[in-house]
């Protein structure tokens, strides 16, 4: 089962070297185990493309308050929803206060 974990932006101070080291170890462990498929940060703005009938509208972002915007993601492959939750718990313990959302990814 694949799950997409997204993380919202926070107003906290810039990460320190300890956080970078802990995160690097975590990412290395998940990658070696074949759990982590992809990870990355996302730009704050983005572009919205909407359709209504034959009309396509393109709008430059940002669209929400910074604290509500998705700042990063991780795509993991695990055996169960519970395992995805445990991976996310470990991530939250490393990065501290904030919010992440986990969604199952369907398809090939």
Automatic annotation (TrEMBL):
Cross-referenced Pfam families: YCII
Source superkingdom: Bacteria
Domain YCII-related residue range list: 1-90
Coiled-coil segments: none
Leader peptide range in chain numbering: none
Gene3D superfamilies, alphabetized: Dimeric alpha+beta barrel
Family of this protein: Belongs to the YciI family.
PANTHER family, A to Z: BLL7171 PROTEIN-RELATED
Name by which UniProt lists this protein: YciI family protein
Organism: Microtetraspora malaysiensis
Lineage: Bacteria, Bacillati, Actinomycetota, Actinomycetes, Streptosporangiales
